[in-house]
Amino acid sequence: MIISFSRQFIFLKTQKTGSTSVEIALSALCSPDDVLTPIAPHEEQIRQQNGRAAQNFLIPRDFRPWWASASEILGLKRLSSGTSYYNHMSATELRARMDPALFDSFKKVTIVRNPWDREVSLFYWHTRASQAPQDFGKFVRRRLSNPERKTFKLYSIDGRIVATHILRYETLAKDYDRFVRSLGIADPVPLGNAKGAFRPNGARNYRDMYDDATREIVRQRYRREIDTFGYSF
Questions:
Q1: Distance between CA atoms of 154 and 156, rounded to whole angstroms?
Q2: What are phi and psi of 187, to 5 degrees?
Q3: Of 57, 93, 115, 158, whose CB count within 10 A is highest?
Q4: What's the pLDDT at 130?
Q5: Rounded Cα distance, 128 and 123, in Å
Q6: pLDDT in tens, 44-71
Q7: Residue 160, CA atoms < 13 Å, CB-side half-sphere
Q8: What are the boundaries of each domain within the chain?
Q9: Dihedrals φ, ψ of 36, to 5°?
Q10: Helix 115-126 to helix 212-221 angle, to the nearest 10 degrees?
Q11: Cα 181 to the chain's mean position, in Å?
């Protein structure tokens, strides 16, 4: 997640959408006073090559929840401690943890992806360390208490989308370029590929992974995103 006071934008980071690559590229545009939340160590190494690393991610005391002081005394480092901005922080929480007038006035950018394609990518990410074959159908059917937490709910507040700029994974390079130019940057930092590919070549067509039942589960689970952005199977 990024709060750029110098460029007046916020990057709301969704999951499995190419977001880390965009985050690293946008970090290069930031100043020493901007907020850059920590990412994985090997990704930080890439970001540092562009001149930035995680910085200023402690929430100012005036914007911390009332219980954060107890967390600090106890030395808690979890995201739930209320003392730090973090990677996949939602718009709802972020607005409560910074000056809301600045949140409202800044450009807010996020990334969306076809949910059926994203689910396959998420499956291979979660099972990347497994030596045994994994069941995609079982993965889709897993019980989720808050399935939109890192998708629709991340860039909306009370069901209303607050992101002012939506980048699509399917046209990410073009959309990223357009957004950066809207900031007045004539020569955008090119996108890399921070995560790499965990999906086998034989699974490149996400449609081959589904049956009618799992296809419908994803449709119902991410209906708001599908309807809003016109995604189809």
A1: 6
A2: -130, 80
A3: 115
A4: 77
A5: 8
A6: 999 999 899 999 999 998 998 877 766 5
A7: 2
A8: 2-229
A9: -125, 115
A10: 100
A11: 21
Residues in the chain: 233
The runs of H, that is alpha helices, within 50-99 are: 68-73, 91-96
Going by their DSSP bridges, the two strands 165-168 and 160-161 should be labelled as unpaired
> What is the pLDDT at residue 73?
58
Token pair 């955008």 is found at 188
Select 2-229's CATH number: 1.25.40, 2.60.40, 3.30.160, 3.40.50. Answer: 3.40.50
Q: What is the pLDDT of residue 171?
A: 97
Q: Which two tokens stand for residue 37?
A: 């939340």
Q: Which stretches of the chain score pLDDT less than 50?
A: none
pTM for this predicted structure: 0.91
The HSE-up count of residue 232 (CA atoms within 13 Å, CB side) is 0
Contact of 39 with 47, CB cutoff 8 Å: yes
